[in-house]
Write a structure and sequence with these properties.
Length: 404
């Protein structure tokens, strides 16, 4: 059985999924797992296609000090115990910089180019590249594909792509990239099946998870995003503040004496729902809390989604549909109801019963704009991109063999 491995590596975890190729372009998820607690409490967990547990093992901290070590252990488990020898590997890479507008086959030159974007995403890019390098070293013949969170947004116009700062910085790469692109691409590809009449229209997609952003889609293409240069901008998130006056950062430097790395940690780990509530970064816990600060954090989250929806509707010059996705968007009827309330001025009404059931269409029959819940699947998107490049390279090789 031919398989594709999908890898999503972060600072403290390596997530992986294996898909079997079941004929022309058809993929089926065989297993998923993750090695988490890297450098603290390493643990390998995996389950099969029906959720059946396949592994749950703890490792000593010194045995899994970093991402390459985690990749080695997960890879050995896949090879030796699951007998999986993937014919290609797809990687999530957060930053493709200004030029990569689609997935790309990886070689040493591509890795060198992607290393240049470490400065643009210092908390993600090095960890994304670590398993790529280790597979390149151990299995140089294996096809590897980089799928970027930024690529889907490279269709933005110049006004959407710029900040009002001197051009030299733009030329260096200080641009409004936008992220969560694999999720938005999956939704854009799925919408024609969910709602064929509006898929070609103006749609706002709200990816509401631990990280959260919104994207304006016009005929399935991204025209605007709430995120910009980094994944800090836009909506408040689990631990990130979202849009914030840069003057606050200047205050932290001048009045609090905070260094760049302290501020980086603060903005990525201590703000957002966690900072505002003082209770948790997890929406389930906030919803279950009686603490007034937890209620404020929930209010703030819904309010900012409403504000940003207004901005994106202006970018689209109208709105034909609104879509919720990701952990909170797919599971929290309460947040969806709150957001629908914020969108009432656009003519949105909610069908409470369908919202509580997490149905696909949750707006009322009288709603001027239909509201959908569409589960996202970034890993499947990566697997599909990897398969497409695999088929392309296979047919190129076959052509070359015939010609020689
Ligand atoms: P993600 O990053 O997409 O996995 O989403 C994680 C976020 O989704 C966390 O804030 C979770 O608390 C939230 N979430 C997951 N399930 C639920 C639920 N049933 N109700 C509310 N929030 C949820």
């Amino acid at each position: 059985m031919d398989t594709i491995l999908v890898v999503n590596a972060g600072s403290s975890s390596v997530k992986f999924q294996v898909y079997s190729i079941e004929g022309e372009g058809i993929l089926r998820r065989q297993l998923k797992g993750q090695m988490d607690g890297i450098g603290s409490r390493p643990r390998l967990r995996a389950s099969g296609s029906t959720g059946d547990p396949l592994a749950d093992r703890a490792y000593p901290i010194e045995g899994v000090p970093d991402v390459p070590a985690a990749m080695d252990i997960a890879g050995a488990w896949l090879r030796d115990e699951q007998r999986i020898r993937p014919i290609a590997v797809g990687h999530r890479v957060v930053h493709g910089g200004p030029d990569y507008d689609r997935p790309i086959q990886i070689d040493h030159g591509v890795v060198t180019r992607l290393e240049r974007f470490i400065a643009l995403a210092p908390l993600h890019q090095p960890h994304n590249l670590a398993p790529i390098r280790s597979i390149l070293g151990n299995f140089p013949e294996l096809l590897q594909v980089a799928c970027f969170d930024t690529a889907f947004h490279r269709t933005h116009s110049a006004v959407a792509d710029h900040y009002a700062i001197p051009h030299q910085l733009y030329a260096e790469g200080v641009r409004r990239y936008g992220f969560h692109g694999l999720s938005y691409e999956y939704i854009a590809k799925t919408l024609p099946k969910v709602a064929p009449k509006i898929a070609n229209g103006r749609v706002i997609v709200a990816h509401l998870g631990s990280g959260a952003s919104m994207c304006a889609l016009s005929a399935g293409r991204s025209v605007e995003s709430t995120m910009g240069f980094t994944a800090l901008d836009g909506l408040p998130m689990g631990t990130r503040p979202g849009q914030i006056d840069p003057g606050v950062v200047l205050y932290l430097i001048s009045e609090k004496g905070m260094s760049a790395s302290t501020i980086q940690n603060f903005l990525y780990r201590d703000c957002g729902l966690k900072g505002l509530s003082g209770v948790s970064n997890d929406m389930r816990e906030l919803e279950g809390s009686e603490d007034p600060r937890a209620r404020l954090a929930i209010e703030y989250f819904g309010y900012r989604i409403g504000l940003n929806a207004g901005m994106l509707a202006a970018a689209l010059q109208g709105l034909d549909a609104f879509v919720f996705t990701a952990g909170i968007g797919e599971n929290s009827a309460k947040i969806r109801a709150h957001v629908a309330g914020q969108l009432a001025w656009l003519g949105v009404t909610l069908n409470q019963a369908e919202n509580t059931r997490h149905s696909q269409l949750i707006s009322g029959p009288d709603s001027r704009i239909p509201v959908y819940v569409v589960p996202t699947d970034e890993e499947l998107m990566i697997a599909q991109h990897t398969l497409s490049l695999l088929m392309k390279t296979t047919s190129t090789n076959q052509r070359q063999e015939r010609a020689s």
